[in-house]
Amino acid sequence: MRFFPSTTAAVATGAVVMPLFILGWRFIESTFSSQVPVILWFAIAFVFPVLFATADLRYAAHRRRELRSFFRPLTTADDFRLYYVPAWRRMFVLVISTIASVFFLKALGVEL
């Protein structure tokens, strides 16, 4: 079984990584006066986990090799059905998981 990307990875990313992302962002803003650490934290703690949890990078790489171009968009009906719809579904699960974990932590009294 493949863990990335999957619904399980989206749930784990939303439930664990996003609250850590929020806490890290608050810590960086209160500690540093520069925005460079914030940008680095955004790339490391938000972009990469969300990308790996939602986008099927193997499928995209396979289609890029078939199309023989990196810049040609994936626009066929199969691409939509096999790449975009599952990614959107995983993104929806990630958002719901993030909302649930933030509400749960707020109910426990954790300041986010």
In short:
By secondary structure, the chain is mainly alpha-helical.
Q: Overall 3D geometry?
A: flat
Number of helices: 4
The largest pleated sheet is described as: none
Structural class based on helices, strands and sheet pairing:
mainly alpha
Question: What share of residues is helical?
Answer: over 70%
Run of helices and strands: HHHH
The N- to C-terminal Cα distance equals: 34 Å
Mean residue pLDDT: 92
* Poorly predicted spans: none
Strand residue percentage: under 5%
- Would you report the number of β strands? 0
Radius of gyration: 17 Å
- Counting structural domains, the number is 1
Key features of this structure:
mainly alpha, 112 residues, 4 helices, single chain
